[in-house]
Amino acid sequence: MVILENEEATLDLGRKLGTLLRAGDKIAMTGTLGVGKTTLARGILEGLGYHGEVPSPTFAIVQQYEPPETRIAAAHIDLYRIEDPDEIPELGLEDTLIDGAMIVEWPDRMPQSFWKDALNIELEITGEDNRRLTWAAGNAWNNRWPLT
Hints:
This protein is α/β, with parallel strands linked by helices. 22% of the residues lie in helices and 26% in strands.
């Protein structure tokens, strides 16, 4: 468990996490609306070298980031608006993992088995600015997470 005391702490943890990402990685982020999932994703993308605006992909569903703007390809995905799991294959998410990483908000829209080797992060509001971050890390994250 990590307590994130403010937005900057969330961005900073994301930046550190972004430096660890490699092709094939999956990060699944859960938590209520407004808890900071997109803020954490912004930090992760900054850690990958991206310095532009990072909008929430709620309406686009998938926002792609590619080299040379990032160290590796990454997809920031928000599955909030997905109502039928049969819609997910149309997004082409498996292709993302060939040479990139996946940062997903609302991962519960996909089968639990998809997240077996993922870094599963849950954010909870614990105060006005404070967030509690807990996680479960699959074997793909051995020796990389938790951050030291």
